[in-house]
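Lab notes, practical 5.
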Amino acid sequence: FRLTDGPGAPQESQEFEAAVRALEKDVARLAPPFGTVHLPAENQKVAPGFWCHGWALDDSGIAEIRVAVAQSAAAAPVQIGRTWPGLAEAFPDYEAPGNGGYGFLVPDLPAGPHELRITLVGRDGGETVISRRIVVGP
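Output from the prediction step:
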């Protein structure tokens, strides 16, 4: 329902559109993306270039996944839409659940402990951050 003529119609339409955007943002917060990091395990010793992977789903679909390293400028490009066994059967009501897998390489980091911050971003704007501690070593 949209008002197209009459006094105040454009203003009311703008207010309506703003209210719809605010409601969509609230819904995204109520149903944020979810998933897991399969590898590396918590505090696992890895080398730069180690292949990390897991899965992520959202009721609106996954728009992107970002990986950053806490206290570092390092980031890693992420491949999304990868096949992940069992997701389609476990979550049949989600968009393309069988392709919920993702993967990325550990960036070139100095030896020692680091925290990966994996941000799952839904198409509706909802976000979830998963943290995983790793130890970089030879």
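Observations recorded by the TA: The chain is about 20% helix and 40% strand. The mean pLDDT is 89.
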